[in-house]
Amino acid sequence: MTPSRPGVILILLTALPMFGQIFHYMKDLMPLWTLSKAFPILSLPLALVVFRHPMPPMARQVMLSFLWLMIVPSFAGIFSFEQNFFTGLAAEVKLLPMLYFFSFLGLLLLLRPTLRELTTGFLLCALLTFASLVIFWAVIPQSWYVEHYPAGGGPLFSADNRGNRIRMPMFFGTIGIFYYYRRFLRAPHLGSLLAVVVGITLTMVLVKARSQMFGVIAVVVFTSFFATRGALRYVISGGAVAAAVGLFSFGYLGSMFDTGAGTGFDLRWETVVKASSFLGISPTRWLFGVGTISPTSTDSLSAYFDHFFFLADITWLGVVFEFGLIGALLFVFYELRGLLFYQRALRPRIESDFLGSLKDYLLYVLVISNLYPPTLTPGETAVILAIFAYVWLWLQQSGAEWREAT
Questions:
Q1: pLDDT confidence of 406, banded at 50, 70, 90?
Q2: Average pLDDT of the segment spanning 39-65
Q3: Element (H, E) at 315
Q4: Dihedral of CA 288/290/295/296: which sign?
Q5: 161, 195, 155: which is closest to 175 by C-alpha?
Q6: Closest CA to 80 of 323, 312, 328, 374
Q7: Contact between residue 341 and residue 388 where contact means Cβ atoms under 8 Å apart
């Protein structure tokens, strides 16, 4: 077994939070937020490394999807909102992290980390995520929790009808939960199960994001059924379902499907009505979308529709509004390609709880997509696809099976 190299792990620990879009919406940490917004461009030179290797799988799909999703809505915005093409293009900068597929893959090809080192890097990031949650909960004074903030805003520390919340990005934490649950299913140990319980509990009690909890629990139930066999399959999956029912009887999780005024459902419904009316009966608008108003413009969607109009609030309808049905399908295929590639190209050749947990995260993104649209953090999927492509290239070049090292 090749020992882990501390230098490689240190580089991964430094780079992974940026590639994982951890600070992408943390305006409270302005320097890191600014760096995160610029990082897709700053890291792009790493993509040049990819050209020194055989064409990686999924590269054409990622690039063609990126170009379509950047260019078509920008053209559509010319006719829908009377803004020029380059102003419309500025509205799509949120998609730039899709390019992490190439830049993160370039970094991996430079570092050539083992699967053990990649696993260690991700798990340390997960540990830091949960440790940060506990530290923030213990030391942050009540006065730091913001009760009133602008519509569409998301302060790191907020207080609402769910109580105090820490809006910690949980990319690495969620993958850590999936990883240890897979380890528990493969070789039941109290330590692995305890890690899962602690991770889910901290997410539920401190982050309090209903979409995250719904996604994590759904994937755990799914994994319980398909990763086990025989009578054990029904015992474990049945226990997971029972635990899920119990959790969704807990406080704010029980109000997940509530349509009362306190949940903001009425505002979202009005957004649905206005968005649907704007799309109308035009096949062109439904197919190609109408784009959106750039944040660099003097206008905004809220001003245009005289309503707190946020596309993320209406999830897939918001995606169709901006990118059209074709664009929505491209986002779905973006996730599905990773799932299918893992199942067909990687899983038959390598048994890895870590790679399995990455696959679980792609499923998680699809599960919560009707609550949290995939347009917000496309870099997360890009990083996972890059790892899959890297492992595939490694296997092709080495001609050997890669054994899991953890």
A1: very low
A2: 95
A3: helix 315-341
A4: positive
A5: 195
A6: 323
A7: yes
CA atoms of 115 and 400, how far apart (whole Å): 14
Comparing CA positions, the residue from 327, 317, 313 lying closest to residue 74 is 327
| 372 touches 211 (CB < 8 A) | yes
Residue with tokens 């139930």: 221
Compute the Cα dihedral for 395, 8, 39, 30 and give only its sign: positive
3-state helix vs strand vs coil in the chain, percent to 5: 70, 0, 25
Q: Which phi and psi (to 5°) does residue 159 adopt?
A: -135, 125
Consecutive H or E run containing 236 = helix 230-247
pLDDT digits (tens, 9 = 90+) for 286-300: 999 998 887 777 777
Quote the CA–CA distance of 273 and 263 in Å, as a whole number: 18
State how far the alpha carbon of 53 is from the alpha carbons of 109, 353, 397, in Å.
9, 27, 10
Q: Where are the domains of the chain?
A: 9-256+271-398
Q: Which of 371, 401, 44, 391 is nearest to 212 (CA)?
A: 371
Mean pLDDT of the chain: 87
**Interatomic CA distance for residues 35 and 383, integer angstroms:** 18
pTM, entire model: 0.93
Q: Is 153 helix (H, G, I), strand (E, B) or coil?
A: coil
Residues 385 and 62 sit within 8 Å (Cβ to Cβ): yes
- CA-nearest of 201, 179, 217 to 134 is 201
Percentage of residues of the chain with pLDDT beyond 90: 53
Amino acid at 67: L
**pLDDT higher than threshold 80 for residue 28:** yes
Q: Report the C-alpha gap between 104 and 385 in whole angstroms.
A: 10
C-alpha angle 114/57/289, rounded to 5°?
125
The CA distance from 148 to 158, in Å, is 8
Phi, psi at residue 157, to the nearest 5°?
-120, 120
The CA distance from 349 to 269, in Å, is: 47
Please report where in the chains the tokens 């990126």 appear, as a residue.
66
Residue type, 403: R
Question: Could you give the CA distance from residue 231 to residue 391 in angstroms, rounded to a whole number?
Answer: 34
Residue 116, token pair as written in the block: 């053990």
Instruction: Please give the biggest Cα pair distance in the chain.
Output: 62
pLDDT 10s digits, 322-348? 999 999 999 999 999 999 999 998 988
- Mapped onto helix, strand or coil, the DSSP state of residue 165 is strand
Whose tokens are 């949120």? That residue is: 94
